[in-house]
Design brief:
It is a single chain. The protein is an alpha+beta fold and about 290 residues long. The chain folds into two domains: about 190 residues, no CATH class; about 80 residues, no CATH class. Helix content is about 45%, strand content about 15%. It has nine helices and seven strands, in the order βαββαβββααααβααα. A seven-stranded antiparallel sheet has the order 6-5-4-1-3-2-7, sandwiched between helices. β5 and β6 form a beta hairpin. α1 packs antiparallel against α7. The radius of gyration is 19 Å and the shape is globular. The relative contact order is 0.16.
Length: about 290
């Protein structure tokens, strides 16, 4: 009897440079490796196995026990809600493979294929996917739509490679060793083989907020995080984060709990940043 478990794995592709992704990735509270993935792209590789279905990957106390697509969907949403760049989660397990694209506060869009490559999603999802990533509405959409049609001999891994081939026109280039369809352990080994890869490790909320504040200070976003509009956006993030986190708790979804917590963290960060900078020596004069 074959006791070899089918590979389960995932990648998070962020349409931003690593220095932009780094402070937000810290707030996921998960061990990951961050590496550049071509021009204007970064990739996050989960080091652990916080999902069901992989031999030797049984979660311990307090860890997620969800399917890989649900875990990655929550992570992608958590990264995207506090950012100005989209996040694409690629995932696969014994039965299926697919993607989830998250962009801001918009509802995530995704597509699924069965292990043998049989399409199991809605065609409209591909068009929405192309629109949100700014792909060519003719050539790229045509290439994506071919992935929604039955094609004997084309398995789920080949479908994901087809998606990556389209995205390569935007500058995406995965580092060697990060191939869809491989087990998570092999992906981690491949990421460690990249000289530009760096570990992302949760060190507590205080350090995470400090890192993000420093990143904001050194970016062009700093001035935009002050004033009435910034405070209004921060308040909206705080208000939206709590019900999302509670919904995730009710469904026992660690990914959505993380998304809600991240929203609240961003809201609190926005309010704190505005107040700190307004009261500091370089802050705007009070009227």
């Amino acid at each position: 009897m074959d006791v070899t478990s089918p590979p389960v794995g995932a990648l998070l592709l962020c349409r931003a440079e690593p220095e932009t992704v780094r402070p937000v990735a810290h707030l996921l509270r998960a061990r990951m490796l961050l590496a550049p993935a071509g021009e204007g792209w970064s990739v996050l590789v989960p080091e652990g196995k916080p999902w069901q279905g992989e031999r030797g990957g049984r979660p311990g106390a307090g860890e997620a026990v969800e399917p890989v697509d649900r875990v990655l969907g929550g992570w992608a949403t958590a990264l995207a809600v506090g950012s100005t760049w989209p996040v694409l989660a690629l995932w696969w397990d014994a039965d299926r493979a697919g993607y989830t694209l998250a962009a801001g506060f918009r509802r995530p869009v995704g597509y699924v294929w069965l292990a043998d490559g049989t399409p199991a999603g809605e065609d409209e999802a591909m068009r929405t996917f192309a629109e949100r990533l700014g792909l060519d509405p003719v050539l790229d959409v045509q290439a994506l739509e071919t992935l929604t049609r039955p094609e004997p001999g084309t398995d789920a891994r080949a479908r994901l490679l087809g998606v990556l081939a389209v995205l390569s026109r935007t500058g995406l280039e995965l580092p060697p060793g990060l191939d869809p369809g491989e087990a998570s352990g092999q992906l981690t080994a491949g990421a460690y083989g990249s000289p530009a890869a760096e570990p992302i490790t949760w060190t507590g909320w205080r350090d995470a907020v400090k890192v993000e504040l420093e990143a904001v200070e050194n970016s062009r976003l700093g001035p935009w995080m002050r004033g009435p509009r910034a405070r209004a956006l921060a308040a909206v993030q705080l208000a939206a984060g709590l019900p999302i986190a509670l919904w995730g708790v009710g469904r026992r979804s660690g990914g959505w709990v993380c998304a809600g917590a991240l929203l609240m963290a961003h809201g609190a960060l926005g309010l704190a940043y505005d107040r700190i900078r307004a009261e500091g020596p370089e802050g705007p004069a009070r009227s």
